[in-house]
Write a structure and sequence with these properties.
By secondary structure, the chain is α+β, with helices and mostly antiparallel strands. The chain has 2 domains: about 160 residues, DD-peptidase/beta-lactamase superfamily (Beta-lactamase), CATH 3.40.710; about 130 residues, Beta-lactamase. The strands form 2 sheets. It has a 5-stranded antiparallel beta sheet, sandwiched between helices. Strands 3-5-4 form a 3-stranded antiparallel beta sheet. The radius of gyration is 18 Å and the shape is globular. This is Glutaminase. It catalyses: L-glutamine + H2O = L-glutamate + NH4(+). InterPro entries: Beta-lactam/transpept-like (IPR012338), Glutaminase (IPR015868). Belongs to the glutaminase family. Pfam families: Glutaminase.
Length: about 300
């Protein structure tokens, strides 16, 4: 299949959608990002990449990082992790306090904000320090992306710390129910720090290969998690990876994927490739509007869907 030709077609057809929606302006450091950007990359199992548009432009991965922290926590805790965080779709906004209160401080899944904050707390307990937790998260992402230069953006981290009152509220609410072990501000800062990691569509699509290959990097041969764990992560990506629009994403795109309010979306085609698309303007549910449409076009044009 001529993947480059497919990407070129998508880039042309997506033009009317690029810039529709709005950037994540509730995070001041992201408010000034140019919405008129679009990049997309496919990475095959032999490392071959096909890209179009702004594929080299770094952006804040935001909630895509939840995928990587969940991987580390699942590897560390196994099935016990589900005692503190669920695995069901939320059906509510990603930062809902009401749902967390109703369910006694147990987040519905690891991809909503409360769930990812709880997973971060679990990692801090596992690694026994905030500093080591941040180091291990960044080291893991660098390894799976094959890029030792990836860093977290301090400006974005601090911007989120100054304005992330609802995320602090989520952490405090879990603490009140006994479902958060460490200091609230330290947990939230560590969470913001990994959300503020900057990558581009090339490095993110490369980073997804281990999940497309049963937990093993097809290029290096390193096994990060078990096939069973990779299966679980992909399943939760499919059902929960796009907040309260996850069903809609599965309906239109048909791939396990995870979005972030920085405008990125990652997806996997099992045993074939990792994908990343980026366009900063978001729809009402907080997912890249043009990015979602681009992935729908890709699966329609190629027939590469899990359904």
């Amino acid at each position: 299949m001529d993947y480059q030709a497919v990407l070129n077609e998508i880039a042309e057809e997506i033009k009317p959608y690029v810039g529709e929606g709005k950037v994540a302006d509730y995070i001041p450091a992201l408010a000034e990002v140019d919405p008129q950007q679009f990049g997309m990359t496919l990475t095959l199992f032999d490392g071959t990449q096909y890209s179009v548009g702004d594929a080299d432009t770094p952006f804040s991965i935001q909630s895509i990082s939840k995928l990587f922290t969940f991987t580390l926590a699942l590897d560390a805790y196994g099935y016990d992790l589900y005692r503190r965080v669920g695995r069901e779709p939320s059906g509510n906004p990603f930062n809902s306090l009401v749902q967390l209160e109703y369910e006694h401080g147990i987040p519905r899944n690891p991809f909503i904000n409360a769930g990812a904050i709880n997973v971060t707390d679990a990692l801090i307990s596992h690694y026994d320090s905030v500093a080591r937790t941040s180091k291990e998260i960044l080291s893991f992402i660098r390894e799976i992306a094959d890029d030792g230069m990836i860093e977290s953006d301090k400006e974005v981290t601090e911007s989120e710390m100054q304005h992330g009152f609802r995320n602090r509220a989520l952490a405090n609410l879990m603490k009140s129910f006994g479902n958060l072990d460490n200091d609230v501000l330290e947990v939230v800062h560590t969470y913001f720090e990994h959300c503020a990691i900057a990558m581009n569509s090339r490095t993110l699509s490369r980073a997804m290969l281990y999940l497309a290959n049963h937990g093993e990097d097809p290029i290096t041969g390193k096994k990060f998690i078990t096939p069973q764990q990779a299966k679980r992560i992909n399943a939760i990506m499919l059902t929960c990876g796009h907040y309260d629009a996850s069903g809609d994403f599965a309906f239109h795109v048909g791939l396990p994927g995870k979005s972030g309010v920085g405008g990125g979306i990652v997806a996997v085609i099992p045993k074939v490739m990792g994908i990343c698309v980026w366009s900063p303007a978001l729809n009402e549910q907080g997912n890249s509007l043009a990015g979602t449409k681009a992935l729908e076009l890709f699966t329609s044009k190629t027939g590469l869907s899990i359904f």
